[in-house]
Amino acid sequence: MQYAILCYHDEKVTCAWSKEQDDAVMAKLGGVMDKLSRQGKLGPVARLLPTTAATTLRKDREQPIVIDGPFAETKEQLLGFYIVDCQSLDEVLDIARELGAANPGGAYEIRPVGVFFSGKTAA
Amino acid sequence: MSDTGWISNVLTAARPQAVAALLRYFRDLDTAEEAYQEACLRALKAWPTNGPPRDAASWLIMVGKNSAIDHVRRQRRLQPLPPDEVISDLSDAEAELADRVDEADYRDDILRLLFVCCHPELPATQQIALALRIVSGLSVRQIANAFLVSEAAMEQRITRAKARIGAGQVPFEAPGPIERAERLAAVAAMVYLVFNEGYTTNVAEKGARAPLCEEAIRLCRLLLRLFPTEPEIMALTALLLLQHARADARFDADGMVVLLEEQDRSRWNGKLIAEGLALVEKALRHRQPGPYQVQAAIAALHARAPRFEDTDWNEIELLYGTLERMQPSPVITLNRAVAVSMSRGPEAALAMIEPLAQKLNGYFYFHGARGAFLKKLGRADEARIAFDRAIALANTPAEADHIRRQIDRLAATGSEPLRGTMSGARP
């Protein structure tokens, strides 16, 4: 079963990291990701730019409108995600705990994946 | 990251909002800062065991406020009560604290805190020092290092600046839309000053001054979170990110300035560029042009060029023309001339800047650019005179060294025309 691990964190905090702190977190996460990769459990991973770079298309009206910023104003923002392939929720939770140790604060939302296209982009 | 390292990050991130709210309650900068410090001390004690609160800023505001009020109460036994206006907004404090702090409610608080630092009576360097101390929470020592002065001198500078603000009127009433826009413009200009203070540097000072660029970006992100739909704030953030992306490529191993045309573009920070480009694109969709958008668009054209030869100088010339119409200034004309020298050749560029000679006679870049145009045209003797003049006006040893290298190349190649030495954007 594929699960998405959606990473939520207060971007005020993550944007306040120094480059060294950011690099250190990424290096630790890289270690966990390497391990998952070798086990064949890791799908696509994305780290998103801050929500200040986000644009939202509201399509709940006849003429969809474009607005600046994320869809939802929340205390913690969606900053990235992992797709993992696991046997059970417990296994995903273990992975999430491991990732969490490398990157404290915030929360991971674990959502089973319904439909998945691996896709392919040029870059 | 260690536990305390992580807590200090949360404290840093929450600081502007917390100090800004405490300033509104107590209407006194020192009281607000002390209350925040007290709250931080308690956070360091409580958070390692209890875990950090979900909303750190509200926690710090509540604890800071209570501790300052406690302090006032204790003082009250010894002193007469302070006038009511000193401790305003206390009646509704409990009710307000019950609610989670809403970012939007604090927008004007934070803007006020930043605006206080832009007091028109304060010289630019004091505005910057104050913003770094009060809003960013840098220590006096860190700021002193960045300004290359002693800690005592910086302490004095900050104290003086605070005294001046205290004597003036801090605007506590909620601003109207026009006032808010004016404050935002002043604050944006101050943030750009902070960045330039860090950017104008040489390699010897690089380590000390780099934090200024990072703090400026942090402050700009803060502004953008408060005003996420303002195209000029998107553009200023983009401009800083795109310029800062080149930081690692700006100096060579010997500490010499590396010009844009000679920079190793693989050393540019791709992540910062991606974010900068995204923000420029968002800003331009608003179709409300402004000077930061034009400058960010110019920076974006440089960032998009895989090699220096791929730079779209025609477009850059047009953008400098737009900027000239928005903010007429001989310095912008000079920058446009540099773009012209690339798109149409040095002769046209030289003709453009001759009328500026009087106004820019004391300006390093004018003589540097003029020397470069003359050199390209093969007029070596005149180029040498212009370069000598530039050296005499150089602001930093690195600038002077850079011009000396141009003169060396003149000597080495005689009067043979060489490729350009100055480029439109800053290195």
What does this structure look like?
The complex is a heterodimer of chains A (123) and B (427). Chain A is α+β, with helices and mostly antiparallel strands and 123 residues long. Chain A has helices at residues 11-14, 19-38, 89-102; strands at residues 2-9, 42-47, 55-58, 65-68, 77-85, 107-112. In chain A, the strands form two sheets. Chain A has a four-stranded antiparallel β-sheet with strand order 2-5-1-6. In chain A, β3 (55-58) and β4 (65-68) form a beta hairpin. In chain A, α2 runs antiparallel to α3 (89-102). The longest helix of chain A is centred in the N-terminal third of the chain and has 20 residues, at 19-38. In chain B, 69% of the residues lie in helices and 0% in strands. The longest helix of chain B is centred in the first third of the chain and has 24 residues, at 3-26. The model of chain B is unreliable at 87-101 and 414-425 (pLDDT under 50). At the A-B interface, α2 and β4 of A face α1, α10 and α12 of B.
> Runs of chain B with pLDDT <50, length 5+?
87-101, 414-425
Helix content of chain B: 55-70%
Could you tell me the strand content of chain A as a percent range? 25-35%
By secondary-structure content and strand pairing, the structural class of chain B works out as mainly alpha
**Rg of chain A, alpha carbons:** 16 Å
Estimated share of beta-strand residues of chain B: under 5%
Order of helices and strands of chain B: HHHHHHHHHHHHHHHHHHH
- What do the pLDDT scores of chain A average to? 92
Characterize the main sheet of chain A.
4 strands, antiparallel
Tell me the overall shape of chain B: elongated
Cα(first) to Cα(last) distance of chain A is 28 Å
Structural class of chain A: alpha+beta
The average pLDDT of chain B is 85
- How many helix segments of chain A? 3
Span from first to last CA of chain B? Answer: 34 Å
Strand order of the largest sheet of chain A: 2-5-1-6
Let me know the number of strands of chain B: 0
How would you classify the quaternary structure? Answer: heterodimer
Q: Which two chains share the most extensive interface?
A: A-B, 25 and 30 residues
Number of helices of chain B: 19
Write the element-wise H/E pattern of chain A from the N-terminal end onward.
EHHEEEEHE
